[in-house]
Design brief:
Blueprint lengths: L9 E4 L11 H10 L4 E5 H11 L14 H18 L2 E8 L8 H21 L3 E5 L10 H16 L6 E5 L10 H11 L4 E6 H9 L22 H13 L3 H4 L2 E6 L10 H11 L3 H8 E2 L4 H4 L11 H9 L7 E3 L2 E2 H4 L6 H20 L8
Protein name: Xylose isomerase-like protein
Length: 374
């Protein structure tokens, strides 16, 4: 019999606790703990923002792992101390990206030098999971064996750390080659290391179905599915396959944690505006959407009177993952720039408390499907 869904651990990510410079890492951590969370994900930009606050002139870590590494590790130890005082455990650190699939020796060496720097920071932070986003660099190789080769070496080097580090591979819907859960799972099988697994994400699993990854310049075809439409057949089939594929105990062990968010759709976003923003920043519309329009499930009920335009089938994705029997940590990773970027000291706690309420609403909605679980 499966463990009860009421016993699932909840986590909240620091970048989801505010987007204004006044939302410092210590303030975010306090807000997360005050909301009742005992787990957090820490993002490198939050940690580096703390370093800049503590040490003016701090040099950020480059793609080759260079910068004020000693200062960053010092600040990471301080952040770890704050977490210990609050009763928080750092579940994972992210986002480590543009790593895998390079054939050029110098680029591979640069990637592994950056990994070595991140390992030092994770150790200082007392964190044992590094989240790796599937690469969005189109110059990287599409060959899954090449991708797996690099990630296998990363997993081996992570395992040699003291204490050992796990690698949680997350599909990014805007990634150049691995942009579905099926692709991420295939990579995971080829890597074939005990400390290499998956970070599943409701937004990333749905995004390529609920947004056109290559829209026209005016964005008229950006959202192929209307709000309130039935579950898309292709997504329904994919979710059914996910449950079937990851039900085996050995497969369940490869799910390290599960990130949850909704997304604003065409009832909230002007397609042309989003396509324009993406073009100005030189990123995919999917990436621009992810960065700014990912509210919590049930946010319109929680923050009554405000329109968030949520429209993804989040409960269907959650139920597909629960259907495997897996009951690991859920992490709420949301990005809603319109509200989170406000210069308001209450933003971090507002969103963390809303996430805890969202979690309870999700459990209430799914409870009838899990009667009898202990």
């Amino acid at each position: 019999m499966c463990q009860s869904i009421s016993s699932i651990q909840q986590c909240y990510a620091t970048p989801s606790a505010g987007m204004h410079p006044s939302h410092t890492l210590p303030r975010k951590l306090r807000g997360i703990r005050n909301a009742g969370f005992t787990l957090t994900e820490i993002a490198l930009p939050d940690l580096e923002g703390f370093a800049e606050q503590e040490h003016p002139g701090y040099r950020k870590i480059s793609l080759s792992g260079e910068g004020d590494v000693d200062i960053l590790c010092m600040v990471a130890r301080k952040a770890s101390g704050i977490c210990n005082e609050l009763g928080l455990k750092v579940l994972a650190m992210h986002p480590f990206s543009k790593f895998e699939g390079y054939e050029e020796t110098s680029k591979r060496e640069e990637s592994f030098e950056r990994a070595a720097t991140w390992f030092k920071v994770l150790q200082a932070l007392d964190c044992q999971i590094l989240q790796v986003g599937s690469s969005d660099d189109p110059s990287s190789s599409p060959d899954l064996d090449v991708i797996a080769r690099d990630l296998r070496q990363l997993a081996d080097e992570a395992d040699s750390q003291s204490p050992p580090i796990k690698i949680a591979y997350e599909l990014w819907a805007w990634a150049a080659h691995v942009n579905t859960w099926e692709g991420a799972w295939e990579v995971c099988k080829r890597v074939d290391r005990p400390n290499f697994g998956l970070c599943l994400d409701t937004f990333q699993i749905c995004a390529r179905t609920y947004m056109n990854p290559a829209p026209s310049t005016d964005g008229a075809d950006l959202f192929p599915i209307s709000p309130g439409a039935p579950l898309a057949p292709q997504l329904s089939a994919s979710l059914h396959k996910l449950t079937e594929t990851l039900t085996a105990p050995a497969a369940q062990e490869k799910i390290f944690y599960f990130q949850i968010s909704d997304a604003s759709g065409p009832a909230k976003i002007r397609s042309a505006d989003l396509v324009k923003v993406a073009a100005e920043k030189g990123i995919s519309p999917l990436y621009a959407w992810s960065n700014a329009w990912r509210p919590l499930p049930y946010m319109e009920e929680i923050d009554a009177g405000k329109h968030y335009g949520c429209f993804m089938p989040v409960l269907d994705v959650i139920e597909a993952v629960l259907g495997t029997g897996w009951r690991g940590p859920w992490s709420y990773e949301v990005f809603y720039e319109e509200d989170m970027s406000r210069d308001d000291p209450n933003v971090p706690e507002k969103w963390a408390r809303a996430a805890m309420e969202s979690h309870q609403k999700i459990l209430q909605a799914l409870e009838p499907l899990h009667v009898g679980e202990k």
